[in-house]
Known about the structure:
Blueprint: H1 10-31, H2 38-51, E1 55-59, H3 62-72, E2 80-84, H4 89-97, E3 101-105, H5 118-121, E4 126-130, H6 141-151, E5 154-158, E6 166-167, E7 170-171, E8 178-182, E9 196-200, H7 203-212, H8 235-266, E10 282-283, E11 289-292, H9 296-305, H10 332-340, E12 341-344, H11 352-367
Parallel strand pairs: 2-3, 2-4, 4-5, 5-8
Antiparallel strand pairs: 1-9, 6-7, 6-10, 8-9, 11-12
Helix pairs in contact: 1-8, 2-8, 3-4, 8-11
The structure holds pyridoxal-5'-phosphate (PLP).
GO molecular function: pyridoxal phosphate binding; transaminase activity
Protein name: DegT/DnrJ/EryC1/StrS family aminotransferase
InterPro entries: DegT/StrS_aminotransferase, PyrdxlP-dep_Trfase, PyrdxlP-dep_Trfase_major, PyrdxlP-dep_Trfase_small
Amino acid sequence: MTYKVPFVDPSRHYLKLKSEIDAAITDCLSKGDLIMRSQLRDFEKNFASFVGTKYAVGLNSGYHALALSLQAAGVGAGDEVITVAHTFVASISAIVHCGAIPVLIDVGKDYNMNMDMLEPAITPRTKAVLPVHLNGRVCDMDRLIEISKEHNFIVIEDAAQSVGGKYNGKIAGSFGLAGCFSHYPFKILGGFGDGGTLTTDDPDIARKATLLRYNGEDRETGEYHYHGYTCLLDNVQAAVLDVKLKHLPAWINRRREIAELYRQGLSDMDDLFLPHFGAEKYFDIYQNYVIRTKKRDELYKFLEEQGVETLIHWRKPVWEHKRLKLGQHNLPETESICKEVISLPMSAETTDEHVEYTVHCIGNFFKS
Ligand SMILES: *Cc1c(COP(=O)(O)O)cnc(C)c1O
């Protein structure tokens, strides 16, 4: 179906940047620069400087940024890693695949880790905490870093949804031992396929991830240091991402503008909870504009009929996917979020008219 208001618009996104992108791709292809060449190194350098870390390691997915961060940090069999239940499954799968035990806790009203739940979940086996900066908002990192020092655990940030998000002026992915980003096409800094980046200030983590991503091989000596993987960020993707990185600040501003338009249009409707949580120290970048209502399923259907495309992340708590064997949990906020959230159209291509029409439809829904 074609929507009056699409959730995102990848072809329009490309056409806006066509000349720059085509030039970057043609450059790679005509020079034969496909694997680990200057385009990858340039992107890594520019991305590290954007995030404010010493190193950035280009990978083929956000998942691998998480998995290699954990592995490089020495997280393994028998260790516990605390994360939230309200996240994309990859945050949890990365923990499981490195042999560790995911310990799931609840989130707060801003959809991020509820720091009051953190201390009670810490045990002598807690090796790491993996906060997820969901929807473009950074977690309460002052509190988390303070608790991490007291209890001596590693912090690995899942910043897949928060590229450019800030907390006290500091950028997501620069707080912990490592930061993990996704360049999946519908992430804010998305490629034309899968991709991810690991950021860190720690030279050992950067080196280990750099070896692990390419079969464990030190490319200078030819020595294999680990049984590694094949999970490099392709040169062509890196070249595209490097072009897009220059536009990222403008896209973030546009998203914040769209969020403000939604806020103005939707703020006086009953039974509608908007994602504006205040507090000066947060700079939210709205990977998703998530609203919350008890009438979620009806609203979803109504908007669909009106030609407004929305998404629901996620319809049931992750532990309810029984084959994942995550055990049974009682996390009330996560459970009600699954029944109440819906994400409105949001991208750099979303126009003021798209927002006006969406707001108008939501107004009609709550009037009837
Ligand atoms: C997208 C995403 C990931 C995984 O990224 P991929 O590049 O798809 O592997 C991890 N965590 C969160 C919160 C995400 O949204």
